[in-house]
């Protein structure tokens, strides 16, 4: 049971956590914090938070759990604001999509890694932003990755694990570096492909006429290109090493595919498509 939860960044991710914990009766009071007044007022109206402040240092007063769910570029500023204002028993965790940058931001702001810090990442989301887009079921049967550090207090880790399990999530722990490599492949690369494809088609055909002839496959493939541009700029900058390596590797694969098409190598194309189809079918089966 959390007595007072401070949610810094009451958007899709922070709002959904607050909603899920409230639904389960697992939290006493929820204090929201953000920059956009209208979003915070809406969060109170929707019953996602009890009250709000626009100052992170005020939001964490008396909180036993602090969840930071702002874009990655805003993490360091938030950590700096709260660094000497946390209650002695408070646990701090986050939902940022890249963990190396969050840990570096925390190191800089807290001047070392505080034992109460449990970096985390729910592998769940949508292309929509803001509290309006949040919903209590977001984390049900989804994974949450935690990347505890040698300094992390086991009790803080246990409290964050329990919090996510109450929301219906399955918690896995891994290293910061492994997290950032894996997510570069499974999340950041696909977002780059969707953004890149839509932008390139839109620029090729300026009046958007081409999109009229798009089928379901185009819509499925490009849903994530509607995601928040600021959030994705921050993810790219925060994970640029792993993502650059992934993009370079993927570029080679695309060149190979293009070459096979150019030289009409049907056997090689079939080999690629059959391997891809069976990998995706296995993946979909494993998520049923
Ligand atoms: N959208 C998604 O599907 C997922 C996002 N994430 C991560 O979760 C974090 C939050 O993302 P969303 O909830 O989607 O974004 P969002 O845009 O819905 O919410 C972010 C909130 O943070 C507030 N904010 C921005 N700068 C701030 C600052 N300096 N101080 C206080 N509040 C500030 C904004 O006003 C906004 O309400 C990001 O770090 C993102 O990488 C993680 C998993 C999935
Ligand atoms: O909209 C989708 O399908 C996503 O993939 C959402 C998402 C975005 C960022 C993350 O770090 C995790 C999940």
UniProtKB/TrEMBL annotation:
Sorted UniProt keywords: Amino-acid biosynthesis, Aromatic amino acid biosynthesis, NAD, Oxidoreductase, Tyrosine biosynthesis
Write out the catalysed reaction.
prephenate + NAD(+) = 3-(4-hydroxyphenyl)pyruvate + CO2 + NADH
Task: List GO BP terms, alphabetically.
Answer: tyrosine biosynthetic process
The pathway is: Amino-acid biosynthesis; L-tyrosine biosynthesis; (4-hydroxyphenyl)pyruvate from prephenate (NAD(+) route): step 1/1
Any one GO MF term held by the record is: prephenate dehydrogenase (NAD+) activity
InterPro entries the record matches? 6-PGluconate_DH-like_C_sf (IPR008927), NAD(P)-bd_dom_sf (IPR036291), PDH_C (IPR046825), PDH_N (IPR046826), Preph/Arog_dehydrog (IPR050812), Prephen_DH (IPR003099)
| EC number per UniProt | 1.3.1.12
Taken from the record, one Pfam family name reads PDH_N
* EC top class, as a word: oxidoreductase
Q: Which residues form the Prephenate/arogenate dehydrogenase domain?
A: 3-288
Q: Which family does the similarity line name?
A: Belongs to the prephenate/arogenate dehydrogenase family.
Q: What is this protein called?
A: prephenate dehydrogenase
Native species of this protein?
Thiorhodococcus drewsii AZ1
């Amino acid at each position: 049971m959390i007595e007072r939860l401070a949610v810094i960044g009451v958007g899709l991710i922070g709002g959904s956590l607050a909603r899920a914990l409230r639904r389960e009766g697992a939290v006493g009071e929820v204090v929201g914090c953000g920059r956009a007044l209208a979003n915070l007022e809406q969060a109170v109206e929707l019953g996602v938070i009890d009250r709000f402040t626009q100052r992170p240092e005020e939001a964490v007063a008396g909180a036993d759990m602090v969840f930071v769910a702002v874009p990655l570029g805003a993490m360091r500023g938030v950590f700096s604001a709260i660094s000497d204002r946390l209650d002695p028993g408070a646990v701090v965790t986050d939902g940022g999509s890249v963990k190396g940058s969050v840990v570096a931001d925390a190191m800089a702001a807290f001047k070392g890694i505080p034992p109460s810090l449990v970096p985390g990442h729910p592998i769940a989301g949508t292309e929509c932003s803001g509290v309006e887009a949040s919903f209590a079921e977001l984390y049900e049967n989804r994974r949450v990755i935690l990347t505890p550090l040698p300094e992390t207090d086991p009790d803080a880790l246990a409290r964050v694990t329990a919090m996510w399990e109450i929301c219906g999530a399955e918690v896995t722990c891994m290293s910061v570096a492994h997290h950032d490599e894996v997510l570069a492949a499974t999340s950041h690369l696909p977002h780059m492909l969707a953004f890149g494809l839509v932008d390139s088609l839109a620029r090729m055909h300026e009046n958007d006429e081409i999109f009229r002839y798009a089928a379901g496959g185009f819509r499925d493939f490009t849903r994530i290109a509607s995601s928040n541009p600021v959030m994705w700029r921050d993810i790219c900058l925060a994970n640029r090493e792993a993502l650059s390596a992934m993009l370079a590797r993927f570029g080679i694969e695309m060149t190979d595919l293009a070459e096979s098409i150019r030289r009409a190598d049907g056997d090689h194309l079939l080999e690629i498509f059959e391997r891809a189809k069976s990998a995706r079918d296995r993946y979909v089966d494993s998520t049923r």
